[in-house]
Design a protein that fits this description.
With 398 residues, this protein is an alpha+beta fold. Helices cover 54% and strands 10% of the residues. A 5-stranded mixed beta sheet has the order 1-2-8-5-3, with helices on both faces. The chain has a 3-stranded antiparallel beta sheet with strand order 4-12-9. β10 and β11 form a beta hairpin. The mean pLDDT is 92. The protein binds protoporphyrin IX containing FE.
């Protein structure tokens, strides 16, 4: 067991971690690796861990207990993703209040418009007979334009954001896979300064965007959101909101390019998009893992976790659990009630899940219709990362 988990962290299996997940799950859905380190790889066990309020996200207290200078804490500390109740409850309520259903519904038209503009340009390239990389030209720009529109970040800064987010999200990888922690910390500080300026600008001139909404919440009562929490959550929304969605679109496009039958069906009937998107989320989750720890002893899923135990929750393994999904390795968009673990579960369930789903549901049929002959011209290239699973490049022609 220890060996299998070691192999997972070594980075040898990032290309295809699924056989290793099966090996880990065959030892049990929730198993001990050493005295205070556990791995959840079964669907029900992972779901139970994520939903249990006694299981905490890594926070400043844990970093202090471990006595290490956690890069993750430096980069994501003060944000809701690294906070537990009562701080988490307070921040989450505020952000959710600014992230209203009305604002989301209004985003659908913006998503369709952005996707149409990008797809038209690609159709033009295809007509000229040019090959292009559909990650760089579509899967990246669409989510970044959408999240920047939502936050109220000027379009001219979007390219710079891609570079910063790419550097910053490295801290989410298992330590051995992180190649440049310092660059992640520098990117966090550059983004922090950027948002500090943008917050000042929105104070002078409010706009219909999330930066204004969160800034006003902060200013209305300084105790609801401290200045550093305001900036940390804006940075979180930016990076959580686009890199993951880029990978959802890229992973789905890779499936469609390998399976022309599915592409033809979706092109002809866009109403199939929601179930296709759920199956992409399950089959190749853009976020593969997360972690939890407990302060007290916790009896859960038939085991007892001692105080200060940590659990590695393998979302991507739970999504391929044969006890939950028949023939889990088969991509089958006709499955019912898929409910993958890809957006987490419980108190930290992804705040942007509805937005990400909507973007992907709009994007796939639209791109397929604009490019009726879309096909691979070379094998897609995976990104060498485990936690955020996606492609660097998918070379195509239309
Ligand atoms: C396919 C796209 C996405 C995936 C797979 C994804 C996945 C996740 C997961 C697994 C978590 C929970 C982590 C944990 O429990 O430890 C999470 C949390 C979060 N996500 Fe997403 N996400 C996506 C898109 C988005 C978007 C578009 C936004 C924002 C616009 C967003 C904002 C957030 C935030 C703010 C949290 C923290 C919630 C909290 O701590 O209460 N995500 N996401």
């Amino acid at each position: 067991m220890g060996e299998a988990v070691g192999a997972l962290f070594s980075g040898q299996h990032w290309l295809d971690p699924y056989p290793l997940y099966d090996a880990i799950r065959s030892c049990g859905p929730l198993v001990r690796v050493d005295e205070r380190f556990w791995v959840a790889s079964g669907y029900a066990a992972a779901d139970a861990i994520l939903r249990d309020p006694r299981m905490l996200v890594p926070d400043r207290e844990l970093a202090g207990l471990q006595g290490v200078d956690s890069a993750e804490e430096a980069v994501l500390g003060d944000s809701m993703l690294r906070a537990n109740p009562p701080d988490h409850t307070r921040m989450r309520r505020l952000a959710a209040g600014a992230f209203t259903a009305r604002r989301l519904a209004g985003m659908r038209a913006a998503v369709t418009e952005q996707a149409t503009t990008l797809a038209r340009y690609l159709a033009h390239l295809a007509k000229r007979g040019d090959a292009f990389d559909v990650v760089t030209e579509f899967a990246y720009p669409l989510p970044i334009r959408v999240i920047c529109t939502l936050l109220g970040v000027p379009a001219t800064d979007q390219h710079w954001f891609r570079e910063q987010a790419h550097a910053l999200t490295e801290v989410l990888e298992p330590a051995l896979l992180v190649t440049d922690v310092d660059e992640a910390v520098r990117a966090r500080s550059r983004l922090g300064l950027y948002f500090t300026d943008l917050v000042q600008a929105r104070r002078r001139q409010p706009a219909e965007d999330l930066v204004t909404a969160l800034t006003q919440a902060h200013d209305a009562d300084g105790t609801t959101l401290s200045a550093s929490e305001l900036i940390a959550n804006l940075v979180l929304l930016l990076v959580a909101g686009f890199e993951t969605t880029t990978n959802l679109i890229g992973n789905g496009l890779a499936v469609l390019l390998e399976r022309p039958d599915l592409a033809a069906a979706l092109r002809a009937n866009p109403a199939l998009a929601p179930s296709f998107v759920e199956e992409v989320l399950r089959w190749d989750s853009p976020v593969q893992l997360t972690t939890r720890w407990c302060r007290e002893p916790v009896e859960i899923h038939g085991v007892r976790l001692e105080p200060y135990s940590q659990v590695l929750v393998l979302l991507g393994a739970g999504n391929r659990d044969p006890a939950r999904y028949p023939d889990p390795h088969v991509f089958d968009p006709t499955r019912e009630a898929i409910a993958p673990l890809s957006f987490g579960a419980g108190g930290h369930y992804c705040l942007g899940a509805a937005l990400a789903r909507m973007e992907a549901q709009v994007a796939f049929p639209l791109l397929l219709q604009a490019l009726p002959r879309l096909a691979l011209v070379a094998p897609p290239l995976r990104r060498p990362r485990l936690t955020l699973r996606g492609f660097v490049e998918i070379p195509v022609a239309g």
